[in-house]
Amino acid sequence: MIFRVLKRYFPRTLYGRSVLILILPMIVIQLVVSVIFVQRHFQGVSEQLVLGSSGAIGFVQRSLNDAPDLAAGVNEIIEDLDDLRIVIADMNITEPQREFFDLTGLVINSELHRHLNGVIAVDFVSAPRMVLVAIETVHGPVTVMMPRGLFSARNPHQLLLWLVFFGVIMTMISFAFLRNQMRSITRLSYAAEAFGKGEIVKYTPAGAAEVRAAGTAFLSMRARIERQIEQRTMMLSGVSHDMRTPLTRLRLGLTMIEDEADVADLLRDTHDLEALLDGFLDFARDDAGDAWDDVVPHAMLSEAVDKATRIGGHVLISAASDATEIAVRMRAQAVRRAIDNLIGNALRYADSAMVSVSVSERAVVFSVEDDGPGIPPEAREDAMKPFQRLDAARNQNKGAGVGLGLAIAADVARRHGGALRLGVSQNLGGLRADLVIARHGGRDGNP
Predict the structure, then answer these.
(1) Please, what's the b/e burial string for 170-195 (b: 16 or more CB within 10 A of its CB; e: otherwise)?
(2) 358 pairs with which residues across the strands?
(3) Are 49 and 150 in contact (CB under 8 A)?
């Protein structure tokens, strides 16, 4: 349970996790070393120094107690301890004073109270680089001022500063090496993502041995898929060419028969057969050769509506359409084919359709709505599969179909990093199909 909660706060990218793996141990090591060093070295050194200094302060306290008065005692002590630079003064120190970051001050204060009797308070703040110790004497409170160097090691922070400095330097060097290693993984990821959209990006395996092996495997896989697509396209093109020739002869022979009533059904069958062939070729066709262009989505949708209207369909452009001047980079021919299929499906199974387009920073959404029977929610996923005809849900009286219109549109959307969404039209009550085309800025098109 705790790992599931912590997982929400961990970086999601490989680079972020690698940085965390790099920084976290380094910070822990520095903290452990710092704590151990301060605890064992500086504390031990401070205890030894305080022991010597407390002896001097104890001598001062005893001398003042034995002197007839405070002035005579002070003069005698200064002559005897002149080398230790002890200054005696009454500064009325009653409360201990210490900066919050002065860790050795805690040790000094504790050791002075442990080794001396009559310590009133220890002041580390009032005089720079000095320690003021207020003690009780028979003549009243006396403050002994001694250099800080007599109580603790000088410049104890230098080790920590060097530790942090070199830690930062080594971390920056590690970041540079890590970024260089991650670059090869990023290039491999980009090449794989581009190939999934039908782009062929130049890629050369680089980086660590494992990354090179993955890159080589990706290139081999891409080459095999390209050969399979090419062979499939060539086979279907050959089949289409061989079948169109006898179909053309059959249509020509039927048109020469005088009795139109006898040949009307045969002509309709030949027309449906040609439509089936066109549908098969559109689905099997690889759009990798389609060029990426900057296209205005609203203009593209208007052309598709004009084409459908000329054929005889009743299509309206929604007044909610926006982005009439914004150009988006996409495979124009493939997207146009997908829109034509969506509008054709809407007109085949309904009396009228309405289309609209919206453009955001992340995606372009072409929406096609109709007043037909729609598709039940449980059948929408199957409707986007190839060769699926939902005869029970959609009216068949509007013409024959091969069941590839939605499959082609869904494939085009996936190649652009988007998706095809099916739902219920709020305006017409029938089916609503949203063709989502992702926008990737500079990553659209060939890099």
Answers:
(1) ebeeeeeebeeebebbebbeebbebb
(2) 365
(3) yes
137 and 96 Cβ atoms separated by less than 8 Å: no
Q: How far is Cα 440 from Cα 444, in angstroms, rounded to an integer?
A: 5
Residues 6+ apart with CB under 8 A from 107: 42, 43, 46, 47, 50, 152
Q: How far apart are CA 332 and CA 329, in angstroms?
A: 8
pTM over cut 0.85: no
Give the residue among 240, 315, 248, 230 at the shortest CA–CA distance from 279. 240
Torsion angle in degrees (nearest 10) through CA of 437, 438, 440, 444: -30
Strands 431-438 and 419-424: antiparallel
* CA 215 and chain centroid, separation: 22
CA distances from 348 to 104, 331, 424 (A): 87, 26, 17
Percentage of residues of the chain with pLDDT beyond 90: 3
**Residue 437, beta-bridge partner list:** 364
- pLDDT above 50 (res 146): yes
Query: Above pLDDT 70, what percent of the chain?
Result: 72
Contact 349, 395 (CB under 8 A): yes
pLDDT average, residue stretch 110-130: 88
